[in-house]
């Protein structure tokens, strides 16, 4: 498609997800249907932080002129939008829902909701984290791109915008891949894309005045129902102590017959 | 009589109010400072404690975050926040390195906040922007070699010239945090209290700049027990001529400046003790869960449980007291001295006690720098002396209690 805005005046839509803080020791809930969320510290998904940072750098580098931060979640998801505003985003969109973000509300539904927001906001770039640290699905970005019929640069570790397009370096299991993509596009941010800034106090104060628009998810005419049901969740098995083997023969025997990792 | 209807909305509001983060901005501030403290302040603590040096580079980074002028008007480069915000910054930074935080306090509260509250527009315009960015590192001089708790017993004099255009300062000030930044010269600017009249209360406050002729570093104080990364010094005034424009507030009127600023200073110091306590509780709680003895985690043993539980409860009590006082504090006013003294008195001892228990829980490991708590213990002791000794608080509090609080609310 064609980009809604000229190359030096792009509009960026950044997705931010509310997740359990990365430093928290997660516990399984008593009913084993999921993790315990009550009284647990919540934060912005670390990859979303990287996406926000990249959007702000685009604005500072005079590639973008407007950054809109969007989050799908409960009332408290506003905190994550406010943090994005404090980092430098211009305004926020809060798609409200009380569905659990780590299980019930799944990437397919989120991608559909984001598509509605994209059609409303007409951004040139959608910047998302490559995955969230609760679901680890890494699906929302690619699904959204497909729904929009847009190209995608996922697992991006470097982005260079020029002449209305972008050169993206992608981190893959086989190494780094460099691709050339046109706008509009969906980008998902990988760890090495940047180091997010701290929200400075003057910007925290400025964020108070920035607008957040709330939209009820149910009003967007999207089927949000989950396609996957979590039946049971358990702690990983306690790691058994290691043993020291006598020689290579003993090692091969154990690998074959006990660990079953070689044929 | 029928009972009044319960306002459930009000009840819900009461439950949802977070005493320690009253607004979203406060919560975001705490998040930023905690994150910064964990990744930038904590790792340098041991090294700068060992070197007894001020970490200027780190101080500049704190300036970049906009934290040096937390309570200052945006017009002068600050962030225009309140006493609660000041507590948040001091608590979070102190959990990582109380010594660095003390230098921050001397700059941001003793100089920056003081000038912001008591200075005129020209003075604020001249000093605050640089102080808020960290371009200048500043402090305050009140105590002297011969006068600490008896602050109005100070002997440094400021003699007005015949034509009233200058004051000449003579004397020395002692225990000045940020009194030097390099061990050889003074820091950049100070608010200095000096006697301008015969009567005990006739004291005035002046702005004194580095390199003013006659203003020198007396000595850097070496071999301190704690707060070692915060440079403390004696500074000397030998016929230092300052222009009359450098008088802050009214002549003979510094007691007002003192009263205003001492409240936020004491609350910020109390918040430092809170940070020390919080980190100590975290360390001992986690250690006691992992450390094994006699086939069990040591947190199964009653004495360890007592150390941890007593510490947690005392910390929370101090925290609630401090933040409650902070949220009522109007920085431009004074008159809340009783509770400002009270929080410092309580929290200083509490921080020291909690750090002590943390060392005890960690045993031999607690005695070693790597485990952090020994530094917290050494740093904690200062809070019972600096910014008001325990004894000074006792004196002030009883004076207030007998005069104004014969019954309590």
Structure description:
Chain B: Pfam families: Acyl-CoA_dh_1, Acyl-CoA_dh_M, Acyl-CoA_dh_N. Chain B: It catalyses: (2S)-2-methylbutanoyl-CoA + oxidized [electron-transfer flavoprotein] + H(+) = (2E)-2-methylbut-2-enoyl-CoA + reduced [electron-transfer flavoprotein]. Chain B: This is Isovaleryl-CoA dehydrogenase. The complex is a heterodimer of chains A (263) and B (409). Helices cover 25% and strands 27% of the residues of chain A. Chain A is built from 6 helices and 11 strands. In chain A, the strands form 2 sheets. In chain A, strands 9-8-7-10-6-1-4-5-11 form a 9-stranded mixed beta sheet, sandwiched between helices. Chain A has a two-stranded antiparallel ribbon with strand order 2-3. In chain A, a hairpin with a 2-residue loop joins strand 7 and strand 8. In chain A, helix 2 packs across helix 5 and helix 3 packs across helix 4. The N and C termini of chain A lie far apart (51 Å). The model of chain A has no long low-confidence stretch (mean pLDDT 94). By secondary structure, chain B is α+β, with helices and mostly antiparallel strands. Classes of the chains: A alpha/beta (263), B alpha+beta (409). Chains A and B meet through helix 2 and helix 5 of A and helix 2 of B.
CATH topology of the largest domain in chain B: Butyryl-CoA Dehydrogenase, subunit A, domain 3
The N- and C-terminal alpha carbons of chain B lie at a distance of: 26 Å
Supply the CATH architecture of chain A: 3-Layer(aba) Sandwich
From N to C, what is the helix and strand string of chain A?
EEEHEHEHEHEEEEHEH
Give the biggest beta sheet of chain A.
9 strands, mixed
Helix-strand makeup class of chain B? alpha+beta
Tally of DSSP helical segments of chain A: 6
CATH architecture title of the largest domain in chain B: Up-down Bundle
H/E element sequence of chain B: HHHHHHHEEEEEEEEHEEHHHH
* DSSP helical segment count of chain B: 12
Number of strands of chain A: 11
GO molecular function (chain B): 3-methylbutanoyl-CoA dehydrogenase activity; flavin adenine dinucleotide binding
Organism (chain B): Florenciella parvula
Protein name (chain B): Isovaleryl-CoA dehydrogenase
Domain Acyl-CoA dehydrogenase/oxidase N-terminal (chain B): 23-134
